[in-house]
Amino acid sequence: MREKGQAALIVVFGLGMMGVLAALGFSWFGPKTIIRQKILADSNLAYFAAQSGIEELMIRLRSHHNFGDWWDMSYELDNGAVFYATISGDLDTKIATSTGIYKDYVRRLEIKVASSSAKTSFLFAVQSGDGGFELESGTEIRGMGGRDGNIYSNGDVLGEKKSSGNSGSRVLGDVWAVGKISGLDGDDSGGVYITGDAAANELLRCEVLGDVEGPVPPGSGCSYGGDYEAGEVPESMPMEHVDVDFWKQQAEHSSVWSGDCVVDPKGGVSDCSGSEKKLGSVKIEGNLVIESNSEVVLTGPVWVEGDLTINSNVDVYVDESLGTEGVVVVTDYPSDQVGRGKIETLSNVDFFQTSQGGPAVFVSTNEGENCTADPAISVSSNTSTVVFSAPNGCVFFESNSFVRGVLAKKVYLSNNSVIEYDPRLATVILKTGLGGWAVVSFQETAE
User: Fold this and answer.
1) Mean pLDDT, the chain, as a whole number?
2) Residue 343, exposed/middle/buried by CB under 10 A (0-12, 13-18, 19+)?
């Protein structure tokens, strides 16, 4: 596959020409206004190119790319803008710079990152284990603001319809599959529509707009618009690990609730959220049920020893004081990870991250892999700014679901559902005992 910036932006600016032309009839300031708008648009394209370079370096850094003491790259975006990116430093601290150039405009960004025991990164819209990723028709994986929504699967990626239309199984980004890319119901029908590049052991049922890579050329059921490169099967990538033991410890050390907790707008003796409807940091020695029409604010980590059920018409907020950090909710019953520790959200449940992008991350240790009958996590419609993780089980999205990201051994996306990746998840700080890289500073600098 040709070298490509995985995080490259495709930016389209609507200048509103009809409104500008109309303004010319009323004011002699019109020509100056047009010039200012054009300058702003061109300068923005240079800035976004620089941002693409920074994001590309961060993705490579968190994917354990060996940069050595100094490394650089350049890339031309589809809109003609170019970025030149460099990264230098040692094992503890690195400086990444990216210069974006569009026409006569130059913008330069610089970030400093430090090796941290406080980092979990979410690099893909979907990352699945050897159980693979399955998409029904009318589904879409994308990124916010026109960015890519990339998929990495240690198994197969299977779609019901390889169409660019609304009924297709569409990935607006790149796909890596250790197994095959093919049809949901077999290798003779269906498939996946992919706007970026694709790499897999077998490319059998797909329509790929970019390049393809694999040990053998794509089959007759897989078309591609770029080049074919003979290459190795994508390596099995370790799933991004959320340190559940750390979060359980943090929750338990703060407080313990004995028995089931039922969050209810009317309160009650079983409501562990109190009159302010705040939850965390706490270990719940039982099930957690959030009743319909509730609002609850997550202020710290929560460990649920039983099951977690969020009923319909519920709003879940991440406390604004957490900033970029986010909050983790773990469901885990160590002695029974087959029958307990499941998560279920019903319809019209909305999750609200902080204004700085700190999300709610829900992790289930349940081992349920039967997606349609007994998943570890079952998600109904209208969830939003939230991440679900089931490292040993399936995350099953029912029809009309909408989420920001998912990590699971197996992922199943039902029709009319969307996973829209938020790039800020790549820099979310989850304070755990894990190794990684934390952003220390971010600034725009002069040339």
Assistant:
1) 84
2) buried
